[in-house]
Amino acid sequence: MGLEEKIPEGIALTTVDTMVNWARKRSIWPLGFGLACCAIEMMSTFASRFDVARFGMEVMRSSPRQADLIIVSGRVTQKMAPVLRKLYEQMPDPKWVISMGACASCGGVFNNYAIVQGVDRVVPVDIYVPGCPPRPEQLIDGILKLHAKIEKESLRAKPKSAARTQTADDAAKKADA
Amino acid sequence: MMEDKIRTFLTGRFGDKILSEYSHRGQLSFYVQAQAVREVILALKADSELKFDFLTDITAVDHQGQSWEKEGRFEIIYILTSLKNTSRIILRTKLQEDAASIATLSGDWGCANWLEREVWDLMGIKFEGHPDLTKILTVEELEGHPLRKDFGITYEMPQFSHNSSDIEVVPDNPHH
Ligand code: SF4
Question: CA A65 to CA A58: how far, in whole Å?
Fold first, then answer.
């Protein structure tokens, strides 16, 4: 946004960081994105029995423009991978990714031609939730771990997508040279 | 009885071209000569009494490595339904590996177009005369036909503690 670069470092930034992170972690808006059987557990997590609204994320957005968390819940096919990447890129910063289940994290039992062997080849993952499928409690645990991670973030850090494009640019430059 | 009618119709009309038949849980299957398949199917479709005018599916089996492989590595399966009689019939034909091609039905049923493309994409059976025999399911970069037995099951060698040193981190795989 540019504004955060103008904030002087030190006490002021730390205080602002704490405040902003406190707000961010308590109002994560996940993208409604279910890919396979894991999505059933994700739905259950969001429904009344497990009620993830207790952690400030009761509403799933149907547009990536309004979301800041993508829960990859299930296997990603080779054909879905570009779609997933595009959705990720369409999300505004700051944004986070949870890889839910064995399939999303490493391909699971689907070690074959159709499935991406780990979604971290397509998007940067913040939290991996193991299990096949993980129980809602496990997903909630992953979400709480994400909260802890968000708490440690700083406004000064580069926006994720910008940072990543830069690395890609560097790599391209290196390849050219 | 419907089954008898079908049997008399097929054997009476096509004789030697119907190689054998078997029944599994009341479902009748006929093995047909590969060159005659289209002819037989169209006759079943056109007959006003049997009227097998609904093509449910086209699929294929790879028999590589089986003791009966020499009869033909690939088996193409046509499932036809008669909406008039609410009955179903399965026609099968065997193809040798070096002659893995068969006449298309895409001019006779619109749906055959995509069904045949699927069989081509996953099994590599050529359909002679198909207007657009291209990939339909797999990604563009993928080479080969993944449901063939010799394609290989695993995509990457799984890494365990006992073999981790033998495995390259970047998989030597054309799709990456
Ligand atoms: S990890 Fe298990 S439950 Fe989740 S998508 Fe894969 S197979 Fe389904």
Answer: 17
Give the domain extent around A34.
Answer: 13-176
Residues in chain A, pLDDT under 70: 1-12, 157-177
Q: With beta carbons less than 8 A apart as the criterion, state whether A110 and A75 touch.
A: yes
CATH of the domain at B110: 3.30.460.80
For residue A122, give the chain B residue with the closest CA.
B176
Task: Yes or no: say if A90 and A135 are a contact pair by the CB < 8 Å rule.
Answer: no
Residue A93 in 3-state DSSP? coil
Whether B141 is in a domain gets the answer no
CA of A41 to the centre of ligand 1 (A): 10
Please indicate whether residue A134, judged by its CB atom, sits closer than 6 Å to ligand 1: no
- Quick check: is B40 in a domain? yes
Residue B144 binned pLDDT confidence (cut-offs 50, 70, 90): confident
CATH for A168: 3.40.50.12280
Task: Measure the CA–CA gap between A57 and B44, rounded to whole angstroms.
Answer: 59
Selection from A160, A161, A134, A150 nearest residue A71 by Cα: A134
Total domains present in chain A: 1
B135 close contact with A: CB closer than 8 A: no
Measure the CA–CA gap between A53 and A47, rounded to whole angstroms: 9
Closest CA to B78 of B59, B101, B102: B59
For B138, phi and psi rounded to 5 degrees? -80, 165
- pTM value is 0.78
What pLDDT digit, counting tens, does each position of B75-111 carry? 999 999 999 989 999 999 999 988 888 999 999 999 9
